[in-house]
């Protein structure tokens, strides 16, 4: 038996090994001998465990199962649970109860006491059901027995290094993928250390249980906040304000100014504008044009046009031209023709904002900066903004740089909640979750509401089916869960259309599409292509929210 | 239209407006009180703008207005003379190439080239600004004589053929007619209105203005899309009979590479010649030399280092170099109250308590006093410390003396570089290098100087005669120089031979004898028998050698040892380095990882530990630094929350902390440090490593 089952044996053992040494899977990949453990040559080590794998068939069954990636890492503490102990006595009953429990576990993930490997075990147990019933028992039996008998070894291996395994363990311990290496590494070493090959070793926690903020709550909390550093920040800004006269002198000498550093510099520029007014007196107020680069609708042409307005006042030419370059040339010729014109100060907040980042835009701004009588003050927020400019642009800009770290919050610059949700890949929250969807639905015609109700019903019933049946789809859904939230489960376009026409919601595909378009516009549905090229529609809401919306739709 | 709206807008509105004309939101100028503002304007049309001084009073604001004004005037005066010199150099530097190019433009015509478009290829290398300068001057030349003009196109002007043509035509017309002229040119014409990119417009313009040479210059020709160039060439070549075009290409790489990007059929349409502009470094060296040798205010060693590092390592243009120098002048006079003493005529009533006090506080004054004390001049020191007017008078004298010795030093540097060239000393040292060494006081007793002195002894009389007029003034004033000079002249008068006189140190005048002593060859240098004249000449050379070395000894001092050098020597890296070569990433990382470097926390302990007292983003950033390449946002949130929880205990508002967390995460994302990751749910990828 021993030599014959070679092929199967290692297949089955890795599972155990995975269970027992899951902690180490990460580093096993990185160092060379980790691979070796999976090869047959290592079987010598496994000998004590072999007797328990009763038949090759059973092993094969388990071997088939293992490749599913969900049981890969992190299953470590899964084995020594109560269920296992019970199992030996009354296997069948215990199996059933374990399956029930697991299904429950997967369904109600918000239970408080979920431990790390819980899902894994549950999935494993459920997956086991797919196999032929006869092997299951044997297999389970095998596994459980192994666990019990091998527990001496496995528990030792995984918990604390026991004298027995100590020789091998420190090596693994050294390789332990702690994100912060001991000691102070130089920056580049740290980079390479943190970017080693291998799967990410982060926990599987996610924010599903955390109630995320919406805009209103964020702003409410934001308004309540008392900044503990308020005094210091004010002091810092006062320090910057002292340089106003210096900046003015730099302007006067033909330099342009660029302010950088952490914190919003918008108030600072506004203060500077005020200061300029006060200094030059209200009798001959300086012309200050302020540009907020972070606003999405600002265009280079509008900047130039506003400057022209600032110079000419009422007598703007009726046609300025549609290209920014034409307006700029108009501006330049106007300035040239008016030698007595006072200089125009142009303050650009966030010159490195996404809308301005394009090289063409920066080139235009540089030309503006190089225009005599234009004093440009730009602020830059990102750390790498200098990369936008090559030598000739730098030359045209003629900047002097000042570190103006203010620590002021970027309240107007960034849409905080939006940014965070984008980062998390939860774009659907943009419509404002449930409330937003309901608000949109209220304004839509009856038909559209019916369609949305139908969509939600289908999705929810599909989800219920998925959870209850826990069949192949489950596996697929699990696979998908790695990539996106679970609520990605969707309905096929054709199927929905079928249902919709059955319910006389849409009489033609054209109409159906028109209705869907409305939802798309409000980001109430998402659509994607699955592997077979079918269009899958889904709703970017959580299950609870879907239920809530559906409830309101049906009742309302 | 805009300003009418903006008048009394709430700040909140203006924050979300893309672009607007600013009106102050100060008290007293709100919308309601506009009339009063208008009333103010009427009675006093202020003309004070001309004599407002951009400088602020220093010395805690106690500096007198007169002094401030004088400081500013001194700055203006000193810098304007320097600027004029720089401009002269800049004009001069490419004059030769300009001459070639303009004569090329004036003489070429398609007929000469057999129907091809005449083209001038200019390689500029890294000296990008020189081309713009040259084109501007060429344009001035051509327009002033009415012969034609220069159209400059940049790659940004040429996204497609239509726009390129339109831009070129407009630029050509605006150049001479102005914007209004262009508009009227478009509209005031018979027949159908032409579109902006119709070359008929240009042809018409050429005919009306009787233009003979129209130069179309491609400033950064490599950046143009070759497809557009190809179309443009074929189009222009068919218009060549109506528009007398000459093309001009600025090439940063090489002519071969430029040609390689175009198909042969296009290249065959062009014919012309090739010009080369010189590198920027020579020009920069020249400017630096002029500024330092003929100034009244000097840039110190480390500042010079920074300047040359920038211009050589970062391909800074000569203009940018000058601006940097200008900025050093600006910062010196703006922020140093003692700089007022550089004014050409200082009124007697300038002296004031605060200024004298500050003079007494500068380090070089203290050193000066210590030296005086060592020499036993206690009386003078007492006077300096107690008598303001004596101090003032002494200071001015010493500053004048210091300026003179700085001046002499740079004369010496110039002389050394001249000698290096004349004496064929293999060591190549340009002015900038020599200046840095001189400014740090290293030139004295350096091997370089020894080489020069040794080589000087071997000079023959003809070379000496060449060098004589270039001798620095300070050397000619040394005692003994006159005698040597007259002796030399007398000797040269009597000397009639065709060969110049040689000293005994010259290799021609030494004989190498070989003797064999105990089977070994021994070389011994013996002196050849010298004629009378040469012996005399050797005497003169010996004297002048001694004179030269004593000259170098007295002139090449360490500038930092000069009394009151603070007034006329600026030697700080920092304003310049920070202002022209900023490190924004470092600044942001520092602000986030050590926020108390910026926020002067007075009461709290300012250890680098994470605490809830810090701004939220910097707390998060420090947690972020500890994470790996992939960050679990949930865990990050937990850690963030724990920071607040541990400090605030039960009083910690979780939703509030969440709001702070949101703010911090959004900022890190906007700063480009976190980005969305598809690897795992609710994970983000780290995209910046501190210190890299």
From TrEMBL, chain A:
Annotated region (Disordered), positions in chain: 1-80, 148-187
UniProt KW Nucleus keyword: yes
Location, primary (coarse class): nucleus
InterPro entries per UniProt: ORC2, RecA-like_ORC2, WHD_ORC2
Family according to the record: Belongs to the ORC2 family.
Subunit structure: Component of the origin recognition complex (ORC).
UniProt protein name: Origin recognition complex subunit 2
From TrEMBL, chain B:
Protein location: Nucleus
This protein's UniProt keywords: DNA replication, DNA-binding, Nucleus
Residue ranges of the region described as Disordered: 31-53
UniProt domain Origin recognition complex subunit 3 N-terminal: residue ranges: 14-341
Primary residence: nucleus
Domain of life: Eukaryota
Keyword DNA-binding in annotation: yes
Ranges of residues in domain Origin recognition complex subunit 3 winged helix C-terminal: 585-689
Presence of keyword DNA-binding: yes
InterPro entries for the chain: ORC3, ORC3_N, ORC_WH_C
Annotated PANTHER family: ORIGIN RECOGNITION COMPLEX SUBUNIT 3 (PTHR12748)
Family: Belongs to the ORC3 family.
Official protein name in the record: Origin recognition complex subunit 3 N-terminus-domain-containing protein
């Amino acid at each position: 038996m021993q030599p014959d089952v070679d092929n199967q044996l290692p297949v089955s053992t890795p599972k155990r090994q995975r269970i027992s040494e899951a902690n180490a899977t990460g580093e096993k990949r990185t160092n060379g001998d980790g691979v070796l453990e999976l090869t047959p040559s290592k079987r010598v080590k496994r000998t004590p465990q072999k007797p328990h794998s009763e038949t090759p068939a059973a092993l094969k069954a388990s071997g088939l199962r293992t490749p599913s990636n969900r049981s890969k890492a992190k299953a470590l503490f899964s084995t020594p649970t109560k269920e296992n102990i019970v199992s030996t006595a009354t296997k069948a009953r215990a199996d059933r109860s374990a399956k029930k429990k697991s299904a429950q576990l997967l369904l109600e993930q918000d239970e408080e006491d979920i431990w790390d490997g819980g899902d894994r075990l549950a999935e494993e147990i459920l997956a086991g059901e797919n196999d032929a019933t006869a092997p299951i028992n044997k297999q389970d039996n095998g596994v459980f027995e192994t666990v019990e008998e091998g527990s001496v070894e496995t528990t030792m291996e995984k918990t604390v290094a026991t004298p027995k395994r100590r020789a091998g363990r420190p090596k693994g311990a050294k390789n332990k993928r702690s994100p912060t290496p001991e000691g102070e590494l130089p920056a580049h070493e740290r980079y390479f250390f943190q970017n080693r090959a291998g799967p990410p070793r982060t926990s599987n926690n996610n924010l599903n249980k955390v109630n995320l903020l919406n805009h209103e709550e964020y702003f409410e909390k934001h308004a309540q906040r008392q900044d503990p550093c308020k005094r210091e920040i004010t002091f810092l800004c006062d320090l910057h304000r002292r340089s106003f006269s210096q900046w003015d002198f730099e302007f006067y000498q033909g330099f342009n100014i660029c302010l950088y550093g952490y914190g919003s510099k918008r108030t600072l520029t506004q203060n500077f504008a005020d200061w300029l007014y006060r200094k030059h007196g209200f009798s001959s107020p300086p012309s200050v044009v302020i540009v907020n680069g972070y606003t999405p609708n600002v265009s280079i042409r509008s900047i130039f046009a506003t400057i022209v307005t600032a110079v000419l006042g009422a007598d703007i030419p009726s046609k300025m031209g549609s290209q920014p370059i034409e307006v700029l040339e108009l501006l330049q010729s106007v300035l040239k023709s008016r030698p007595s014109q006072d200089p125009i100060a142009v303050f650009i907040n966030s010159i490195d904002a996404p809308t301005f980042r394009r090289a063409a835009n920066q080139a235009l701004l540089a030309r503006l900066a190089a225009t005599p009588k234009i004093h440009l003050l730009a602020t830059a927020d990102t750390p790498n903004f200098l990369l936008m400019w090559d030598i000739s642009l730098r030359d045209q800009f003629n900047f002097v740089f000042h570190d103006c770290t203010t620590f002021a919050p970027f309240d107007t610059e960034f849409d905080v909640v939006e940014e965070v949700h984008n980062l998390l890949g939860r774009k659907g929250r943009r419509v404002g979750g449930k409330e937003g969807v309901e608000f949109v639905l209220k304004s839509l015609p009856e038909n559209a509401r019916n369609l949305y109700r139908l969509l939600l019903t289908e999705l929810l019933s599909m989800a219920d089916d998925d959870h209850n049946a826990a069949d192949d789809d489950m596996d697929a859904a699990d696979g998908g869960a790695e990539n996106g939230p679970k609520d990605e489960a969707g309905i096929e376009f054709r199927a929905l259309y079928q249902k919709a026409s059955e319910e006389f919601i849409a009489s033609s595909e054209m109409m159906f599409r028109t209705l869907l378009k409305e939802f798309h516009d409000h980001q109430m549905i998402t659509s994607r292509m699955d592997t077979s090229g079918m269009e899958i529609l889904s709703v970017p809401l959580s299950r609870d929210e879907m239920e809530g919306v559906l409830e309101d739709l049906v009742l309302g | 239209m805009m300003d009418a709206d903006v008048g009394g807008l709430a700040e909140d509105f203006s924050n979300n407006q893309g672009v607007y004309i600013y009106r102050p939101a100060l008290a007293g100028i709100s919308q309601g009180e506009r009339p009063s503002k208008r009333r103010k304007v009427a009675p006093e049309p202020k003309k004070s703008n001309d004599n407002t001084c951009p400088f602020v009073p220093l010395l805690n604001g106690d500096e007198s207005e007169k002094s401030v004004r004088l400081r500013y005037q001194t700055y203006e005066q000193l810098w304007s003379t320097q600027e004029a010199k720089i401009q002269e150099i800049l004009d001069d530097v490419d004059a030769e190439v300009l001459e070639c190019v303009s004569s090329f433009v004036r003489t070429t015509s398609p007929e000469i080239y057999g129907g091809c478009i005449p083209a001038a290829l200019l390689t500029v290398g890294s000296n990008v600004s020189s081309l713009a300068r040259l084109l501007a001057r060429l344009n001035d030349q051509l327009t002033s004589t009415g012969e034609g003009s220069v159209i400059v196109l940049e790659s940004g002007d040429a996204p497609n053929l239509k726009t390129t043509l339109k831009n070129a035509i407009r630029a050509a017309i605006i150049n001479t007619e102005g914007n209004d002229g262009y508009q009227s040119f478009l509209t005031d014409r018979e027949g159908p209105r032409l579109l902006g990119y119709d070359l008929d417009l240009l042809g018409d313009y050429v005919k009306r203005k009787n233009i003979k040479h129209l130069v179309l210059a491609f400033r950064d020709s490599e950046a143009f899309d070759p497809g557009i160039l190809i179309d443009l060439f074929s189009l222009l070549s068919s218009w060549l009979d109506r528009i007398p075009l000459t093309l001009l290409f600025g090439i940063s790489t090489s002519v071969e590479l430029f040609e390689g990007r175009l198909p042969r059929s296009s290249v065959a349409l062009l014919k012309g010649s090739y010009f080369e502009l010189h590198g920027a470094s020579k020009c920069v060296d020249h400017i630096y030399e002029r500024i330092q040798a003929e100034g009244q205010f000097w840039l110190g060693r480390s500042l010079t280092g920074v300047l040359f590092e920038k211009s050589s390592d970062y391909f800074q243009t000569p203009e940018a170099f000058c601006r940097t120098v200008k900025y050093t002048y600006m910062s010196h006079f703006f922020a140093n109250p003692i700089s007022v003493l550089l004014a050409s005529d200082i009124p007697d009533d300038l002296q004031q308590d605060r200024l004298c006090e500050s003079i007494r506080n500068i380090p070089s004054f203290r050193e000066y006093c210590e030296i005086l004390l060592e020499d036993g001049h206690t009386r003078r020191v007492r006077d300096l410390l107690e008598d303001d007017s004596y101090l003032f008078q002494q200071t001015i004298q010493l500053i004048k003396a210091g300026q003179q010795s700085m001046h002499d030093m740079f004369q010496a540097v110039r002389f050394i570089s001249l000698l290096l060239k004349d004496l064929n000393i293999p060591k190549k040292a340009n002015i900038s290098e020599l200046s840095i060494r001189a400014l740090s006081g290293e030139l004295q007793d350096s091997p370089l100087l020894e080489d020069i002195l040794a080589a000087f002894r071997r000079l023959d009389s003809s070379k000496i005669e060449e060098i004589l007029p270039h001798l620095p003034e300070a050397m000619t004033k040394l005692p003994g120089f006159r005698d040597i000079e007259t002796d030399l002249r007398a000797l040269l008068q009597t000397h009639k031979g065709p060969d110049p006189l040689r000293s005994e140190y010259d290799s021609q005048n030494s004989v190498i004898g070989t003797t064999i002593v105990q089977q070994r060859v021994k070389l011994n240098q013996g002196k050849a028998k010298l004629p009378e004249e040469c012996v005399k000449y050797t005497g003169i050379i010996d004297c002048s050698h001694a004179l030269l070395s004593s000259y170098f000894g007295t002139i090449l001092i360490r500038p930092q040892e000069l009394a009151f050098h603070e007034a006329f020597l600026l030697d700080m890296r920092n304003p310049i380095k920070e202002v022209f070569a900023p490190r924004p990433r470092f600044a942001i990382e520092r602000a986030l990882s050590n926020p108390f470097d910026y926020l002067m926390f007075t009461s709290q302990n300012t250890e680098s530990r994470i605490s809830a007292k810090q701004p939220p983003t910097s707390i998060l950033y420090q947690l972020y630094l500890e994470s790996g390449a992939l960050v679990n946002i949930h865990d990050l949130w937990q850690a963030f929350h724990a920071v607040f929880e541990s400090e605030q205990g039960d009083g910690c508002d979780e939703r509030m902390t969440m709001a702070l967390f949101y703010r911090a995460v959004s900022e890190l994302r906007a700063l480009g440090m976190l980005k969305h990751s598809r690897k795992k749910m609710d994970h983000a990828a780290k995209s910046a490593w501190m210190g890299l």
